[in-house]
């Protein structure tokens, strides 16, 4: 059984600006308190196969592997743990005068029920923090 958490945020900024901020993943800790550190290998633009080592408050450091990138529109990365696969998607939807950004986390595998129950509230909190931080930095620039 899979568990999914999603948040959307309306950002009054050009899609290219939002995409640039969102995909500069090593800078995420500067605009959201849901991230302590992010390091990307190889450094540079996100690409399929890129790996991001992410440390978040209250969580162990996790390695996320980029599985999909549609330039200017979306990217997805996946992490694996004992009995669980976590998929995080980031999607930009253009609109007049800005974009709507959809952030989602999906837990799947035998451990997904437990992960959803124990970590669901924290996941939702972090998604909202990321959405709010992204909106703030993109609209401020």
Describe, in plain words, how this protein is organized in 3D.
This protein has a single domain (3-140), classed as START domain (Alpha-D-Glucose-1,6-Bisphosphate, Chain A, domain 4). The chain is 30% helix and 42% strand. It is built from 3 helices and 7 strands; from the N terminus they run βααββββββα. It has a 7-stranded antiparallel β-sheet, covered by helices on one side. Strand 3 (51-55) and strand 4 form a beta hairpin. Helix 1 crosses helix 3.
**CATH fold name:** Alpha-D-Glucose-1,6-Bisphosphate, Chain A, domain 4
Range of strand content: 35-45%
N-to-C SSE string, H for helix and E for strand: EHHEEEEEEH
Low-confidence stretches: none
CATH superfamily: START domain
Strand order of the largest sheet: 1-7-6-5-4-3-2
Radius of gyration, taken over Cα atoms and rounded to an integer in Å: 14 Å
Into which percent range does the helicity of residues fall? 25-40%
Task: Output mean pLDDT.
Answer: 94
Specify the CATH class.
Alpha Beta
| Second-tier CATH architecture | 2-Layer Sandwich
**How does the major sheet shape up?**
7 strands, antiparallel
Task: Count helical runs.
Answer: 3
Q: What is the total tally of β strands?
A: 7
Instruction: Classify the secondary structure makeup into a structural class.
Output: alpha+beta
Distance between the termini: 41 Å
Count of all domains? 1
């Amino acid at each position: 059984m899979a568990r999914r958490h999603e948040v959307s945020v309306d950002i009054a900024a050009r899609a290219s600006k939002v995409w640039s901020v969102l995909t500069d993943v090593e800078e995420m800790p500067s605009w959201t308190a849901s991230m302590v550190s992010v390091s990307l290998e190889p450094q540079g633009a996100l690409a399929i196969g890129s790996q991001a080592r992410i440390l978040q408050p209250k969580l162990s450091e996790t390695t996320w592997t980029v599985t999909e990138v549609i330039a200017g529109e979306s990217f997805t990365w996946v992490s694996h743990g004992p009995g669980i696969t976590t998929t995080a998607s980031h999607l930009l939807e253009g609109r007049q005068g800005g974009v709507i950004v959809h952030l989602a986390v999906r837990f799947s595998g035998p451990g997904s029920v437990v992960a959803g129950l124990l970590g669901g509230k924290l996941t939702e909190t972090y998604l909202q923090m990321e959405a709010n931080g992204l909106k703030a930095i993109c609209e401020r620039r």
